[in-house]
Amino acid sequence: MHTQTCLKILSMNVTNIAHICSVDMQTQIALCKVHRKHLERKHFISRKHIIKSTFSFDVKSIVDYNNPTLNIFGRDALMLYASYFQRENISNQKRSFELLRLIDLDFSVSFCLLDLPPVNEYDMYIRNFGKINTKQAYVQWNEDNLDRGIQTDEIETQEKWTQHPGETALVSGGPKSSYDVTAITPKIDSQRLANFLRSACQVIEVLLEEDQVATQPRRNLRSRPSSLSISDRCFQLNTNLPFLNGRRISCLHISQAQRQALLSVHGLPETSNDLSLDSKYIICVWNVWQPSSPQKLLLCESQVTCCCFSPCKATLVFAGTVDGSVLVWDLRENSRMHQCVKVNETDWTFRSPTFSTDGVFTSINHACTVLTIEPVSTSVFKEQNCGFSYLSVQEEMLGLSFQIASMDENGTLSLWVTYVFLVYLFIYSISVASHRGHISPKDYTFLGVPQTLNIKFLPSNPNHFVVGTDAGLVSHGTRHELKVPPKWFKPQQGGPRATQINAIDFSPFGKPIFLVGCSDGSIRLHQMASELPLMQWNNSTAGQAVIALQWALTRPAVFFVLDATSVIYIWDLLENDLSPVAKQPIWSDK
């Protein structure tokens, strides 16, 4: 009976349940218990649904505030619902927590929801102006023409045709092109080519002359093995030329930069040769490797007393004359600028001076005969230059500028500062700096004022120079007129005497020592710091005057002496410091 009543209650809606609330309390409690047991046996309905379906009616409708019995039932029902729902909620949370540990989301698969690239300038331009009087069109340019570098040269080809046998005068030809019409001009340095040809011609001339000497022994001007005991070979210059016959040689000079270059000064001929050159003096420039003929011939109107080469290169020749002028020849000038004379079917070029001081520097020019002219050596030590040099180191090393010293018989010393500017092989200007120093010793008045004869500059310090006189004394001076001791270099006997200083030569090995050759045949060895000589030889030449002396360039203790009788003496101070170790007379060719 009770079971059937509960089944009927389940089929009712909420409004019908409100009418059941009028039954007694015991009946309602019994109905709830039966309904609960019945639902627990049915597992197809969840517990949460059971509670909600059982108590889905309005709680306020169950509670009747006017009936105390019904109020007690409402409170019990609410407490039952709350406790049961809390247990179900805790159970669900526990189960969901356990399931969450087993369940994890898979992030291995990803995809892009939106891909919007930035708009480039071209798209922006087309978006704004693409539809305004424009039309899109595709063109092709040289982008697909790819170049690849290769190491092989491109083969030049030309198209030609030919006909055989030829029926007309034209049997071959080809297309005309600008390459055929315009010839390629090669890049040629004419200056370098001229220098190379000049050097090559000299070498060829030397080889031809040696070959000619080998085939014609009579023309051998070099080898004389039996004539000289002091050397293996000598060079005999061929002065047997029509314009040199009968002319006496007054001066010889060897270039310090190029040892094969030699200058010889020839005076007027003793007899007339019916030539236009008989009234002029001649200076010959020789190459000792080609003794058959001079390399250059220089003409001078006045008598030449001294000469020298430029210090760095043997390209300029300086000469002093009896009228006090200084002459300069530039050997690099074109031969077509000078006089050409035919002598015995041979053309000879005679060069006139490139520069002369006549009438140019009248206030500082020499007023009497120029006795000596010397190139001033380049400063070796910078600390000894003393700021006096007018030239830069680069100019001195290149040979573009240098100094020449000339001294006349009055003792006037002039320094000529030379600036060489080469434009088409010409010297444009030569500046002059004059330095005058009259040498007149007051200590020796009984012989009068000594006459100066020659001058030499100290190689290690060209500010210092020594001057030979006719009183047997050597004067010491400086270019900037400072007083330096000693003032005079005297002989061992002391005091002046009537002896000329004919030759002076400094040691080429950097030592401040020099040799002095006198007219009485004595030879002295001086040092710059002492007044008296270190050594003196009085009777080495048997009283003959010493004409020239020179240190050897390879051995510091060896020097050579030439006396007035053309006898050469060889000294070796390490072997014998009392007398020469050898001597050789030079006989005349006549």
- Placed side by side, the strands forming the largest sheet appear as 3-4-5-6-11-10
Residue stretches low in confidence (pLDDT < 50, at least 5 long) are 1-23, 43-65, 380-397, 422-446
Radius of gyration using CA atoms only: 63 Å
Distance N to C terminus: 187 Å
**The biggest beta sheet, please?**
6 strands, mixed
* Number of H- or I-type helical stretches: 10
The averaged pLDDT comes out at 74
Helix/sheet category: alpha+beta
Shape: elongated
Number of strands: 27
Helix content: 10-25%
Portion in beta strands: 15-25%
Pfam families: WD40 (PF00400)
GO biological process, one term: intraciliary transport
Protein name: Dynein 2 intermediate chain 1
WD repeats: 316-339
SSE layout:
Blueprint: H1 2-10, H2 14-20, H3 25-40, H4 47-54, H5 59-62, H6 68-102, H7 121-129, E1 161-162, E2 172-173, H8 178-181, H9 190-215, E3 247-254, E4 261-269, E5 281-287, E6 296-300, E7 304-309, E8 316-321, E9 326-330, E10 339-343, E11 346-351, E12 355-356, E13 370-376, H10 393-398, E14 401-408, E15 413-419, E16 452-457, E17 464-469, E18 474-478, E19 488-489, E20 501-506, E21 513-518, E22 523-527, E23 535-537, E24 546-551, E25 558-563, E26 567-572, E27 582-585
Parallel strand pairs: 6-11
Antiparallel strand pairs: 1-2, 3-4, 4-5, 5-6, 7-8, 8-9, 9-12, 10-11, 13-14, 14-15, 16-17, 17-18, 18-19, 20-21, 21-22, 22-23, 24-25, 25-26, 26-27
Helix pairs in contact: 1-3
